């Protein structure tokens, strides 16, 4: 049946043309934008994912900037630490030269002061955009990543850079909790005296002919064979024999049958061993050692003259722990920094005391081979006061001393100053080397993270492109096909629109 009211063919052709035009518009949009998903209506799920990832890409661009700034800041600190190390090495050369007595130590000290001023200038100038990593103790965080979890939450990740204070600041003594138990004076000594420590060997009873006595002092064995001698003769023999050895800091005297061996060795114990082989009842024993009588020993050590401050082997060291040693009328402080140990505290106290230039006083830091305990030994040779009061104290919550604490106290114009400076400079050089090594490690880590962020950003961009970018080869082929379909649809609609006109022939 033919109808002039309803043209079914035209309607079909029109719907076909509309569909082709819609697909044509979609294809043209892909060509113009380059994306298959350019808005939420194209594919809401893919669009949402792509927008989240694009936000992450923008975040990582900011992180790259943060890492670049952090790397530059750390690079400045590393270079400054290396420069300080070189300058300290130059100072060490001057200090070594000052160990000779026939040099102009005043001129050497002038050179050391100039190098010290240069170090101060380097430390002050080692900043990038106002941030100096070789002054102060506070950590610095560098934004290094954004971590997105499965639930969609995002957390920032930082690379923490520890400052390496290379200043000469003395620090501020704390007023917090008392921790004086961490630094105890051995034998509860109340003074650093210049007097010798002694051992008394008593020769008693009757010495018959061919009786022998041996005495070993500082590893040197001496022997006496009696010919019916009195005990005074035995003691007198060993007195002359010991004095004849010329041992450094060791002398002997006798009274009756008692032989007194004295040692003024500052940092070294003196071993004494006594023995006898008798036909009668002659006897030889150490009856007094370091001022303690009523002994019956065959072997003993005459203690070093120096007094000793023992650091705790159990307590941890926290930033701000403040230690004080009073020698004579002057007090010397060291305030621990972050990550330091009792070794650092002991060396810091030594540096502080050495910087006081007390006449006749020298110091040494030692570690017990068995207990691993660190100690500060303080000696007085009597060229100043023959006896100096000694006490210790310690509190928490101070402000840390600088990493080059004591550099400003180095003075090689005297024998004692030149000697103590040689110990101090080694500690300072090690501090500077550690700082440079820490910054070098941190810089390498930042460089690695920056490289990773760059590659990660590229991967994210590639992933986003895979989700939303149009396949231009496919789009080109589809456009050609749609253009052909459009032409055919237009032709089909034209034919369908002409069909009702054929009804007119029925009425002619």
From TrEMBL:
Q: Flagellin C-terminal domain: which residues?
A: 423-507
Q: Name one GO molecular function term.
A: structural molecule activity
Q: Which residues form the Flagellin N-terminal domain?
A: 4-137
Q: Which GO terms describe its cellular component?
A: bacterial-type flagellum; extracellular region
Quote the subcellular location field of this record. Answer: Secreted; Bacterial flagellum
Q: Which Gene3D superfamilies match?
A: f41 fragment of flagellin, N-terminal domain
State where it is primarily located.
secreted
Q: Which UniProt keywords apply?
A: Bacterial flagellum, Cell projection, Cilium, Flagellum, Secreted
Family, similarity comment: Belongs to the bacterial flagellin family.
Q: Outline what the protein does.
A: Flagellin is the subunit protein which polymerizes to form the filaments of bacterial flagella.
- What's the name of the protein? Flagellin
